[in-house]
Structure formats: C-alpha cells, structure tokens
C-alpha cells in the first residue's frame, strides 16, 4: 500500500511538471493515427481494387500485361511493408533518402515524414483486407450488375464496395487502434508524440515507472474511446433492427388476422361478410324461398 501511495505521489509530481507535454503528445498521436489511417485506407482501397480487376485469356495482351505488372508491383509493396518493422521503415524513409541522394531529397517537415511512413504501412495491411472484402461478396451480385448493363467501374462503385466497406469496417478500426499504439516508434525520427514525451520526462527525472504508468493509462484510454466510437459507427452502418414499418404496410395483413376463432376474417367462413356473400350467391343460383318473398 505504501508503494502505491508513493507511485501516486510520483505520478502527481510528473503530471504537475509535464502534464501539458503529455496532453500535447496525446493530441499529436491521435492526429497522426487518424490522418494516416484515412490515407492508408485510400491506398489500401486502390491496391485492393487493382488486384481484383477481372481479366481473361480473351483480353488483349496489352491489358493482361499491365494488369499482371500492377499485381506484381502491389504484391511487392504489400510484402515489403508488412514484412518489415515500422521503425525501420521510418529510418529508411527519413534518413535513407538524404543518404542516397546526398541530402538533395530530405523532409523539412517532420509531420509529413511521420504521416507518410504510417500511411504506407497502413496501406499495405489494408490492401489485403480490401481484396478479401471484395472477394467475400457473392459473385452473383457482380453477374446481376453486368446483366443490367453496368460496367466494372459502376459495379464496384455502386454494388461491391458499399458491402465490402461494411465487411472490412472492423479491420479499419483495428488498424486505427494499432496506429495509435505503433505511432510510438516515430520517436526515432524525433516526432513528438505521446511516447516521445515519456522518453523526455524520463530523461529529465529518471522516474521511469511512474511515467510508464501515465503512458499506459493514456494509451488505454485512447484505444477504449476509439473502440467505442468504431462500434457505434458499425451499428449505424447496420441500420435499424425495428421492423414495425413492415407490419404497417397496407399490403401486409395486420397481426391477429387469423387468431380470432369467432370473428375470423373477411376471407373465412366465420366472417359476416363471407356469410352475406354466400347467401347472395345461393339466392342467385336457386332463387329466394317462398317465405322470404
């Protein structure tokens, strides 16, 4: 208990000194993760769509060659950026370009470098998610769209992608949460995000564990809030589960129509309307009896 009390006091001291820096780091982390996820999703959608363009042996050789070349390029991009750590990607992008170009090409804006690294990394993962989401749609819908005269672009835009986006929405949210945490490696290029603030505070105060506790709580809060918002978006995309409009449709028989054993409906033998119609039909067929004239 004494150690917990001491931990709380150390955390309070750290927050008093570096609270503004921690909050600024949280802000930078969220902005970087959000912007990079959006750009990465756009990259992933482009790559995923390019990988699913249909072709056959009857297509012109030029078309088949370019589609094969595009798929090879996309595959190399995906495998390279999924198979290497983001921290090394940041090193190669930020420090490698000046090294190979003799400082003629270098990033003057640290934000641009960080967004580029996280975006292309996210795009590599999203490319496979989008491809899988597109392939998960029933091929019959593509055939139906073609049957009514839609070309491939129209089919993807109006039929396939709206459904694919809903299918891969959990993966988009997952990538956003991963980017919140993995953006911590951007300290390697001196980007001031949440983890970089932690490193600075530890270097000045040597309070490693209290600062790490602040970091853990901060990251946990960010990811929990992001998860809650993403679940809310998914529910909104699913639409309402209320089907009362169906029961109120004039073309649908109201509930309880067939449940009353005495009154019945206008269409069964218990109803007054049915008996009146039957009597009229019998009178027209056989004539009224003497007592009713």
TrEMBL record:
Gene Ontology MF, one: transmembrane transporter activity
Transmembrane segments: 30-53, 74-97, 109-127, 212-233
The keyword Transport appears for this protein: yes
GO process terms (BP): amino acid transport
Protein origin, superkingdom: Bacteria
Region (Disordered) residue spans: 257-293
The name this protein goes by in its record: Amino acid ABC transporter permease
Lineage: Bacteria, Bacillati, Bacillota, Clostridia, Lachnospirales
């Amino acid at each position: 208990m004494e150690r917990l009390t001491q931990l709380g006091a150390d955390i309070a001291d750290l927050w008093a000194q570096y609270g503004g820096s921690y909050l600024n780091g949280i802000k930078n982390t969220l902005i970087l993760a959000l912007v990079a996820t959006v750009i990465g999703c756009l990259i992933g959608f482009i790559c995923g769509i390019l990988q699913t363009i249909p072709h056959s042996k009857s297509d012109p050789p030029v078309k088949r060659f370019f589609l094969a070349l595009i798929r090879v390029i996309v595959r190399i991009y995906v495998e390279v950026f999924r198979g290497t750590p983001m921290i090394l990607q940041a090193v190669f992008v930020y420090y490698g370009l000046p090294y190979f170009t003799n400082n003629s090409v270098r990033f003057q804006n640290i934000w641009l470098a960080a967004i580029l690294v996280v975006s292309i990394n996210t795009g590599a993962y999203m490319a496979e998610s989008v491809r899988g989401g597109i392939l998960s749609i029933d091929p019959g819908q593509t055939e139906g769209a073609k049957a009514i005269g839609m070309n491939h672009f129209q089919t993807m835009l109006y039929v396939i992608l709206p459904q694919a986006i809903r299918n891969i929405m959990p993966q988009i949210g997952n990538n956003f949460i991963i980017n919140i945490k993995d953006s911590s490696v951007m300290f390697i290029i001196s980007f001031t995000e949440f983890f970089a603030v932690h490193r600075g505070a530890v270097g000045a105060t040597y309070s490693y564990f209290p600062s790490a506790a602040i970091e853990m709580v901060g990251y946990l809060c960010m990811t929990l809030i992001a998860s809650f918002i993403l679940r809310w978006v998914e529910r909104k995309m699913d639409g309402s589960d209320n089907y009362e409009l169906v029961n109120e449709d004039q073309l649908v028989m109201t509930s309880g129509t067939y449940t009353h054993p005495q009154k019945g409906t206008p269409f069964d033998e218990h109803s007054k309307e049915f008996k009146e119609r039957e009597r009229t039909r019998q009178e027209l067929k056989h004539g009224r009896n003497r007592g009713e004239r």
